[in-house]
């Protein structure tokens, strides 16, 4: 638990998503604006999140739809360029998430000096992306081989747009994930980005592994954040910070500020 305060400078941190626009090689990449436009929009979102008062930011290729479970090199390279150009503007702790590839996420984190990653690290799933498999042993060994000993890994144990391949209760998954893998944190999600995480599921997971950090991973809003933070040790927030609360839009700094003012009153 101590690593939360050391990394984020607060209890119950809010990690805001900086959703990078479609990149070279992605079906919806906008070639007319090119990478300069991608960087420009990422900077705009970053500044809105920071100025609004979030505790940390996580850069993710959220618009690389449809997602790959093993990304191609151009994606990681393009994300590294974006973060590299933004480094002088980043004033808060940051992490990365290369959807849906934990090895690439570690590579990007090491290249950019990120403090944490979030990914699907364990399990086998029937998903919108086909049969989705993982190799946690390989992933953690890769982290060790790169010398990323201080890099924190947030294990998403309820992947979006997928179902665990096998009849396992979320509590069994949480307990075995903690026992076998010693995660820095578990993330509990809804069905898709922006979908509310079940408070009942969140509570069951936290009760099952009380010594492990548990984050609410999707669907936090200004109306439910106090309830979710009563249970969880922090939250990852994306869609609600955007104009009109819509996934495709850019960040609305005023929405961020209203949300974070409520969080700070709750923490205070």
Automatic annotation (TrEMBL):
<protein>
    <submittedName>
        <fullName>SgcQ protein</fullName>
    </submittedName>
</protein>
<dbReference type="InterPro" id="IPR011060">
    <property type="entry name" value="RibuloseP-bd_barrel"/>
</dbReference>
<comment type="similarity">
    <text>Belongs to the BtpA family.</text>
</comment>
<dbReference type="Pfam" id="PF03437">
    <property type="entry name" value="BtpA"/>
</dbReference>
<dbReference type="InterPro" id="IPR005137">
    <property type="entry name" value="BtpA"/>
</dbReference>
């Amino acid at each position: 638990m101590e690593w939360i305060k050391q990394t984020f400078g607060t209890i119950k941190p809010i990690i805001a998503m900086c959703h990078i626009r479609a990149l070279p090689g992605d079906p919806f990449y906008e070639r007319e604006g090119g990478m300069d436009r991608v960087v420009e929009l990422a900077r705009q979102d970053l500044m809105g999140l920071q100025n609004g008062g979030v505790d940390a930011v996580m850069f993710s290729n959220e618009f690389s739809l449809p997602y790959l479970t093993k990304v191609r090199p151009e994606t990681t390279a393009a994300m590294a360029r974006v973060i590299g150009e933004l480094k002088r503007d980043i004033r808060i702790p940051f992490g990365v998430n290369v959807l849906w590839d934990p090895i690439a996420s570690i590579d990007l984190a090491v290249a950019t000096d990120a403090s944490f990653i979030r990914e699907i690290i364990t399990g086998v799933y029937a998903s919108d992306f086909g049969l989705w498999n993982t190799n946690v042993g390989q992933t953690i060994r890769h982290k060790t081989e790169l010398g990323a000993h201080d890099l924190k890994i947030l294990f998403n144990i309820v992947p979006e747009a997928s179902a665990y391949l096998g009849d396992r209760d979320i509590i069994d998954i949480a307990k075995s994930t903690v026992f076998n893998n010693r995660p820095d944190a578990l993330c509990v999600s809804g069905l898709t980005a922006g979908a509310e995480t079940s408070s009942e599921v969140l509570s069951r997971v936290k009760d099952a592994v009380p010594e492990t950090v548990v984050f609410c991973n999707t669907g936090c809003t200004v109306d439910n954040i106090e309830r979710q933070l009563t249970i969880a040790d922090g939250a990852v927030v994306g869609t609600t910070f955007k104009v009109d609360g819509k996934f495709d839009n850019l960040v609305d700094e005023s929405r961020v500020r209203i949300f974070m003012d409520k969080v700070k009153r709750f923490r205070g």
